[in-house]
Recover the amino acids of this structure.
């Protein structure tokens, strides 16, 4: 520069950014900064890539969910279609099943033989539908819808009744009657023992598995109705007939679900049953025992519900009065028993005539055979 007035030269101007002499520490920092910048860039690019991938995946997920919703809608439609088909099939199956039972005979008679003893006439099962009774040297044969031999088990007899018992769940009313002379095994067949239960307990068990069941138990003694499940079993009840329905107002009704409930109801009923002795059997039951099971069945798939009643009757002994040599109260009982059994027989005849009329009208037949044993002629006279 130009010399100053005082002859001195101006001091040189300092540099705007003087570059400090590089120390070993600052060299390391700049290297690290560079590296940091590089990894920052890489990280940004990775994050950008991940975000793009996630976006793509979200799009795919959205597509998949849309497809699933569509498929679900279609599946729901198919399920509804299958449900309605099932409903139709269930109704058809029930109707065919029950028609089959009707064709086999709406009234069926089974015979269960007991082991013959020296004092009893010899009863012998000759085939599945025939028994022979040998008495005083002569042999008489009788036909039934089914014959159970003297070695038949409780399971076998129950299996024979099972098809009609199953109808109850479909809303049909079914009645099973045990009929026979005193000591012939009616109570054994219907009630059985704790270890080897009969039709009553087995059907109760079976039906309580299939639907909601309610038990009613009553006895009929000398034309008097007694509720066997009430705390006051001696009180007589009335029978009410309204149109086609018969009811006993005030009859105790107990809901049964478990096996313990069933046994409890049966035991209470049995305890309250009037038992008196006769000449032929010390533990002779002198009353008819009626156990009615009201079953409400519902199909969870189709939503259909039905209500049926299974009536199980252990009738009083059907022996002849003269044979038992009954006198006094026993004679009164025997007369009442025989009167009610005769009424039952008359009802059977009436029912058979109704069935015959129905068959003639619907099938236009002049002559028909019902239950394989009864033959009707044109004048409503029947022969066995
Ligand atoms: N199939 C059988 N196997 C074994 N024991 C039987 C059989 N049938 C009946 N009994 C026995 O015979 C006896 C009389 O049977 P049960 O009481 O069932 O006759 P019942 O027809 O009900 O008589 P009642 O009319 O007097 O009531 C009972 O001790 C019973 O256990």
């Amino acid at each position: 520069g130009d010399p100053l007035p005082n002859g001195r030269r101006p001091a040189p101007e300092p540099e705007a950014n003087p570059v400090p002499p590089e120390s070993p520490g600052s060299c390391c920092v700049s290297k690290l900064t560079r590296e940091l910048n590089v990894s920052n860039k890489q990280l940004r690019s990775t994050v950008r890539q991940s975000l793009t991938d996630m976006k793509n995946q979200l799009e795919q997920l959205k597509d998949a969910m849309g497809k699933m919703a569509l498929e679900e809608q279609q599946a729901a439609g198919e399920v509804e279609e299958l449900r309605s088909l099932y409903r139709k099939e269930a109704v058809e199956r029930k109707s065919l099943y029950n028609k089959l039972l009707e064709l086999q005979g709406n009234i069926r008679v089974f015979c269960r033989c007991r082991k013959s003893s020296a004092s009893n006439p010899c009863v012998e099962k000759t085939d599945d539908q025939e028994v022979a009774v040998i008495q005083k040297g002569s042999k008489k044969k009788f036909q039934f819808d089914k014959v159970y031999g003297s070695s038949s088990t409780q399971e076998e007899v129950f299996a024979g009744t099972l098809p009609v018992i199953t109808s109850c769940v479909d809303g049909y009313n079914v009645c099973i009657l045990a009929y026979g002379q005193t000591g012939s095994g009616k109570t054994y067949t219907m009630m059985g023992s704790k270890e080897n239960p009969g039709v009553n307990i087995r059907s109760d068990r079976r039906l309580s598995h299939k639907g909601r069941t309610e038990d009613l138990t009553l006895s009929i003694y000398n034309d008097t109705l007694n509720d066997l499940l009430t705390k006051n079993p001696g009180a007589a009840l009335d029978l009410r007939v309204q149109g086609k329905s018969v009811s006993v107002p005030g009859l105790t009704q107990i809901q049964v679900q478990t096996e313990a409930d069933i046994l409890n109801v049966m035991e209470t009923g049995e305890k309250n049953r009037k038992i008196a002795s006769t000449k032929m059997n010390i533990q002779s039951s002198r009353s008819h025992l009626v156990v009615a099971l009201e079953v409400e069945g519902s199909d969870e798939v189709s939503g259909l519900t039905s209500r049926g009643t299974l009536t199980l009757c252990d009738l009083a002994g059907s022996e002849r009065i003269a044979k038992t040599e009954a006198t006094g109260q026993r004679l009164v009982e025997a007369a009442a028993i025989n009167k009610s059994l005769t009424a039952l027989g008359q009802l059977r005849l009436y029912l058979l005539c109704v069935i015959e009329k129905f068959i003639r009208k619907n099938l236009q037949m002049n002559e028909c055979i019902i239950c394989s044993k009864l033959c009707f002629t044109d004048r409503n006279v029947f022969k066995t």
